[in-house]
Design a protein that fits this description.
With 685 residues, the chain is α/β, with parallel strands linked by helices. It has 24 helices and 29 strands.
Length: 685
């Protein structure tokens, strides 16, 4: 949907490339074919004419001189320019040679939450049909894989249950493990707006995040103690008789097992684990359970733990116990961190499922996709991304194709990651900038960014929306879908699509939840929320209204397990990691946006003044932070935002990479790393 603006500006409506909120804006371009700015979409159902700081600057990196514009091939130890045919032939031949010699499962394919649904679909098709392996995954493994596993078990669907409009209809918002105003600013704004209409706010976060200033109750519980806190709240609900007995009887199962499991979690027991006062737990419980309609909002503060799936199960139990499901203003609402992490999961860029979460181990699902693609498909689920890193370090994974991901900053324990990538026989990278990962590659393929290609993206509320090309790619760069089509055809798989719209047409024939989605239907509106099974269906804003996707909601008892690594005498402080309001993930785009970089140019560590005094550290002083896995240097930022005994480091900065320090201990079910808790030592430099 293009429109003309004054001053001979072209305006192209598209979807923001940053967080999963799903904001829309117009990209403004002139007759010179360059972007000059953005303009909010005044009537868009999600952003409603507003943008966050990153959205306002979403054009700024597109024409950066660092953009990759020519394929590169490593010769004599250095990447050198080459032509597309040589680069693509090398990628196909080297990966195929590894598969022939060591078996298909010696390959790993990293898809991306930053590319479109169509491109994620093609990447998982390339892995499965092109190279006969289910070893395909993406960064959901690092952020919300716990959510997918936990909610799929208890409800039958691993997605956000409600829609953003539900903030206008709720009586209480329970925010736990989500720094919403900084990580999803427009959703944070909706929460603040709801407070003006007497909505209550309960915040559980060890840091004094901005939302905490507006909370009726702020629980500063210890990182990693979420299961104990939530179980304690549920026990107190039963003590007070605040459970929804009718909902439990009609719509759930396994309640007796849950009730029995909660008996040890008295306020006193929970207080000893969480660091809270018993009365705080009781008060918070009564605030939440006393609301007629309550929304649970969470993000990576819940998921990024070695017991992340248990955290999600516990929150699902809490919602089911109080009947807060299937109605406006209720639900369990995981906020997705990247613009298409929901879509990448939906498209089967995961080792165990095809599109729409159809299991690769299911013979009927496998037959359906095998018939459509004309290739017999592997039946054994593949490697998770985090397991693939370990396998590469051990030598059993020998080749990788990485699209739009930067594991050299995003994965934990960077010493291990570097060893893994350097140990590969062959590494190919598709990206828009020379990332830290691309610098280790044997072949680098230059891709189009979001402003240079068409496609669809699925937001955190399951809203499928269009992205539209506004400008041309730099130099010889190509859209990811064109690159993947070429590789598929070199593998003998039919992939003669003329446009992403044709790819979506294929997706809809194979994916019941996307069955009614087409470019024609997306063109004139504000997207469609899946499930949308047919062309006459309006989409589904709220899940589980009459019954859960799995039938009855299942209570899943959880036991408290401490984090894998807690502070001790040698490493006396706890490290927490996350994002800032200004930057995004590994900084590939935002640190190449001048105004954003100016606002936050350097790595830093938040340190409580009490700890700083004991360590004889001053504000803005250079410090060394060390864990059992490595050391980094960065500046201290003294603040009571973090409690005594804890420091916080954002993970955007390669020169002060937090993930040099973090622990690669994994959740046994979801494979997610424990980013939020590890033991560190801080020293002045």
């Amino acid at each position: 949907m293009n429109g003309n603006k004054p001053s001979e500006m072209n305006a192209t409506l598209t979807t923001c490339p940053y967080c999963g909120t799903g904001c829309n804006f117009y990209l403004l371009s002139g007759s010179d074919g360059r972007l000059s700015g953005v303009e909010p979409a005044a009537k868009h159902i999600v952003s409603k004419g507003r943008l966050c700081m990153k959205g306002w600057n979403a054009h700024a990196f597109v024409h950066h001189p660092d953009r990759l514009s020519t394929p590169q091939l490593k010769r004599d130890g250095a990447l050198q320019d080459c032509d597309w045919d040589t680069a693509l032939a090398t990628v196909h031949q080297r990966l195929q040679a590894i598969a022939d010699r060591h078996g298909p499962d010696s390959l790993m394919f990293f898809s991306s939450a930053k590319v479109s649904n169509e491109e994620n679909y093609l990447m998982m098709k390339l892995a499965r049909a092109g190279f006969s392996t289910n070893n395909v995954d993406h960064c959901a493994r690092l952020c919300h894989s716990s959510t997918v596993v936990g909610l799929a078990e208890t409800l039958g669907s691993g997605a956000m249950t409600n829609t953003l409009d539900c903030f206008d209809h709720t009586d209480l918002v329970f925010v736990i493990g989500s720094n919403t105003t900084e990580q999803h600013p427009l959703i944070g704004g909706r929460i603040l707006q709801a407070l003006r209409h007497d909505t209550k706010l309960l915040v559980a976060d060890s840091r004094k995040i901005r939302l905490a200033q507006h909370a009726n109750i702020h629980l500063r519980h210890h990182n990693g103690s979420d299961v104990a806190l939530i179980n304690g709240m549920m026990r107190q609900i039963l003590v007070d008789g605040l459970e929804d007995r009718d909902f439990i009887a009609r719509r759930t199962e396994n309640f007796d097992a849950l009730r029995d499991s909660l008996e040890p979690f008295t306020p006193e027991y929970v207080a000893a684990i969480t660091g809270l006062e018993p009365q705080q737990i009781i008060d918070a419980t009564r605030l939440y359970a006393g609301a007629d309609n309550a929304m649970i909002v969470f993000a990576m503060g819940i998921t990024q733990h070695s017991h992340g799936v248990d955290n999600v199960r516990a929150l699902s139990n809490l919602a089911l116990m109080t009947g807060n499901l299937g109605r406006p203003g209720t639900g369990i609402n995981p906020l997705r961190g990247q613009n298409n992490v929901q879509g990448a999961c939906d498209m089967g860029a995961l080792p165990n499922v095809y599109t729409g979460y159809q299991q690769v181990a299911d013979p009927q699902a496998r037959l359906k996709f095998s018939t459509a693609w004309g290739k017999e498909l592997p039946e054994t689920p593949g490697l998770m991304a985090t397991h693939a890193i370990e396998a590469a370090a051990a030598g059993s994974v020998r080749g990788m194709l990485i699209m739009g991901e930067n594991p050299m900053l995003s994965e934990p324990n960077q010493t291990l990651v570097r060893k893994a990538l350097e140990n590969l026989d062959f590494l190919a990278v598709i990206d828009i900038f020379p990332t830290e990962t691309a610098q280790l590659a044997d072949v680098v393929l230059p891709a189009a960014c979001y402003a240079e290609r068409d496609g669809t993206y699925t937001s955190t509320e399951r809203r499928v929306q269009r992205g539209r090309q506004a400008v041309e790619t730099p130099g010889d760069a190509r859209a990811d879908w064109r690159i993947l089509c070429d590789l598929l055809q070199r593998c003998g798989i039919k992939a003669n699509y003329e446009s992403p719209a044709q790819i979506m047409d294929e997706i809809t024939t194979l994916t019941p939840s996307y069955g009614g989605i087409s470019y024609q239907r997306l063109e004139g509106g504000h997207g469609l929320q899946w499930p949308c099974p047919d062309a006459d269906h309006p989409g589904t804003p709220i899940l589980h209204q009459e019954q859960c996707t799995r039938g009855k909601g299942r209570f899943s008892p959880t036991r408290y397990r401490p984090p894998k690594e807690l502070p001790d005498e040698k490493y006396p402080l706890l490290l927490n990691t996350g994002r800032t309001a200004v930057h995004w993930h590994t900084g590939t785009m935002t640190r190449r946006s001048h105004l954003l970089h100016r606002e936050e140019p350097h790595a830093f560590a938040e340190v409580n003044p009490q700890d700083a005094g004991q360590l004889q550290i001053c504000d803005r002083q250079l410090i060394r932070v060390s864990s059992r896995r490595g050391s980094i240097q960065l500046k201290a930022r003294l603040t009571e935002r973090v409690p005594a005994g804890q420091i916080f480091i954002p993970f955007h900065f390669a020169e002060g990479a937090a993930n040099v320090l973090t622990n690669n201990a994994l959740d046994p079910e979801s494979g997610i790393p424990e980013f939020k808790v590890c033991a560190v030592r801080v020293e002045p430099c």
